[in-house]
């Protein structure tokens, strides 16, 4: 029998490599199987990507040339580490009006590591796939997509560098 981590990793890879849109319900079901992330787990440098679900923000990060996130400590989080034309990393403080910090917050009935943006009413909640992979949900006033009539969250992932 596969361990929960092995099973979660296989599911994550299948979602990451999925060629088309992924249903919110499928990502919601996967999210439910994962353990909450800790602040300690999040410390470090992460390369990011998004799951294409049809959320209105899909593609925004690509336009910024987003690389990922870096967490130096719970009070020093760089949410939008982007690449310039020469491939150099920088913290894009303009796109979301500042940087961020890490907090433990309740989301969907569980307390998990969450990144709170300094300048926007947006919170990213994280759950652990394995020690080097997390998936995130972007939540908050400016992040939830209501265009379809029901609230939809932007799903993304981070892999430790």
Notes on the structure:
This protein has 161 residues and is of the alpha+beta class. Helices cover 19% and strands 42% of the residues. It contains 4 helices and 10 strands, in the order ααβαβαββββββββ. It has helices at 4-16, 24-33, 39-42, 60-63, and strands spanning 35-36, 44-50, 66-73, 76-83, 89-91, 100-107, 110-117, 122-130, 133-140, 154-160. Strands 1, 2, 3, 4, 5, 6, 7, 8, 9 and 10 form a 10-stranded antiparallel β-sheet that branches. The chain is globular and about 45 Å long. 29% of the residues are buried.
Quaternary: single chain
Coarse structural class:
alpha+beta
Computed over alpha carbons, the radius of gyration is 15 Å
Instruction: Give the strand content.
Output: 35-45%
The number of E-state strands comes to 10
Please work out how many helical segments DSSP would assign: 4
The residue ranges in which pLDDT falls below 50 over 5 or more consecutive positions are none
Pattern of helices and strands: HHEHEHEEEEEEEE
The overall pLDDT, averaged over residues, is 96
Give the gist of this structure.
The chain has 161 residues and is α+β, with helices and mostly antiparallel strands. The protein is 19% helix and 42% strand. It has helices at 4-16, 24-33, 39-42, 60-63; strands at residues 35-36, 44-50, 66-73, 76-83, 89-91, 100-107, 110-117, 122-130, 133-140, 154-160.
Task: Provide the descriptors you would attach to this structure in a database record.
alpha+beta; 4 helices; 42% strand; 161 residues; ten-stranded antiparallel sheet; single chain
């Amino acid at each position: 029998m596969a361990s929960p981590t092995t099973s979660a990793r296989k599911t994550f890879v299948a979602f990451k490599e999925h060629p088309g849109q992924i249903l919110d319900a499928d990502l919601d079901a996967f999210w439910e199987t994962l353990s909450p992330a800790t602040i300690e787990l999040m410390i470090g440098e992460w390369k990011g990507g998004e799951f294409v679900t049809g959320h209105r923000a899909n593609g925004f990060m690509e336009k910024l040339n987003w690389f990922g996130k870096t967490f130096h400590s719970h009070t020093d989080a760089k949410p939008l580490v982007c690449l310039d034309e020469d491939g150099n990393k920088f913290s894009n403080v303009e796109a979301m009006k500042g940087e961020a910090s890490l907090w433990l917050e309740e989301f969907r009935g569980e307390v998990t590591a969450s990144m709170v943006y300094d300048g926007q009413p947006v919170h990213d909640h994280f759950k652990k796939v394995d020690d080097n992979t997390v998936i995130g949900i972007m939540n908050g006033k400016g992040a939830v997509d209501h265009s379809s009539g029901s609230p939809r969250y932007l799903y993304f992932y981070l892999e430790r560098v």
